[in-house]
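To the team - flavin-adenine dinucleotide complex, inputs and output below.
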Amino acid sequence: MNRNEMLSRLDAEKEWDIIIIGGGATGLGSAVDAASRGYKTLLLERFDFAKGTSSRATKLVHGGVRYLAQGNIKLVMEALRERGYLLKNAPHLTSRQPFVLPSYSWKEKWFYTIGLKIYDLMSGKLSIGKTRLLSSKTTQQYLPAIEKKKLSGGILYYDGQFDDARLAVNLAQTASENGGAVLNYMEVVDLVKDNGKVKGVVAEDTVTGKAYTIRGKVVINATGVFTDDIMQMDDDQLEDLVSPSQGIHVVVDKKFFPGDHAMMIPKTDDGRVLFAVPWHDKVIIGTTDTPVQEPVFEPTALDEEIAFIFRNVNRYLTSGITKKDIKTVFAGLRPLVKAPGQKNTALMPRDHTIIVSKSNLVTITGGKWTTYRKMAKDAIDNAVFASKQERRQCKTETLKIHGWADKKTGNEVLDFYGSDAAAIQQLMHTDPALKEKLHPGFAYTKAQVIWAIQNEMAITIEDVLARRIRLLFLDAQAALDTAPIVATMMAAELNKDEEWIKNELDHFAMLAQRYMIH
Ligand SMILES: Cc1cc2nc3c(=O)[nH]c(=O)nc-3n(C[C@H](O)[C@H](O)[C@H](O)COP(=O)(O)OP(=O)(O)OC[C@H]3O[C@@H](n4cnc5c(N)ncnc54)[C@H](O)[C@@H]3O)c2cc1C
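Output:
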């Protein structure tokens, strides 16, 4: 996957069958779907793939236990089915994760056991493990940091886990391998219309400043919390559809939450669920649900959100996590679709919404990472219908995602690359200096930086340290310390000068501050 090649395709193509705005889960999924059906497909992303919400998830491939409690059976069934497909189609990026729900009263224990048994039964043939009641002793074994006083037991259940930003990059590669073109750092600034119908976009390459007028038979708006900006380019009288809701996570060392099991706290003091999940040898704890007026592309965690997480998680843990233990904190914005009369974002629907405007702009928003494939299928079906193109069968239910590999070797870093791991090893073989670690505390190597530039369209330090490898999301200080090495390597590889290095380092230092606690 190479950005210059994508740019030449942009110059050469007169009209695309389908243009997609937005390179998060929804847009990338749509690009894979459209390209694999054989439509001439173009995806444009303003920043980097998964720069928005799609790199800031809890990293669960799940049906959503909480939605079951809310009675949203259809959504849970659909998500459990999609969980099954994703675990099969991207085994290198996903895994089966055991969860324990600790319980301090027998009544609660039975209530949740029945609920989680139903949750498992609903996954049918795609079940990934049986729900089981645990004694207090086994619960303590599985969750060594759990508060033992009055612990009555726990419930063991299974869900999926994944690396969100790496899945996004692999989806971009899958779209490209199926004939699609995907471009990061290409911002859509306007829509092109012929006789009142949307027939393309005006986009600006934010690297070179060059503007493009790009024509397409249909345009899909998959811009997450920025959905309304594009809809209002189409019709400036429209009221906002999306109500953004912020969720944050804190990341701490595993010593605060040892073991391989994740924990689900069933009821926080605002009546939601909270997770503590092992991820890349750290633990992610979250999340919150805070209504936001105006979406921004780099949201910041609020003090009250951090206090909320500590207050709730420390009721269950003996390790007593405090602010100084946080390695990184990250915030994301859910693109929730407004429900009439509903102001509480925690109660707004989590299913996806598709709107085809009078001028044929197809907007898709809402949903979650787990259901990206189904959302993409629905978006492409609608886009093809609206633009009267020949209907072709969706293929993504069994389509293998780039990097697919059926075996993991146990290599904590390279396993996430699946079938690409061999090529990265070959880089290290050819140039042994690339075996060097980027940071003494992490197994990431210099070879991964070269790989990200040459094959994954990384063009900034942030692309490498936030999304191609996940250091910024694991330890913000370590990411900051690593930035100079990455900058030097990138400058050499991309032919950039000292000024570029300085600008990049300044930008990254500012960004990393947002992920640190002060
Ligand atoms: C805190 C939190 C935790 C979550 N946890 C989970 C989880 O564990 N499991 C799960 O399944 N789901 C989870 N979700 C939901 C999931 O992350 C989102 O539903 C999903 O990432 C949304 O993807 P998207 O593509 O719609 O939006 P985004 O990822 O935001 O993508 C939209 C993209 O459009 C781009 N864009 C905007 N304007 C323009 C323009 N003018 N031109 C070009 N590009 C543009 C943006 O830069 C952005 O990259 C979570 C969400 C949050 C907030």
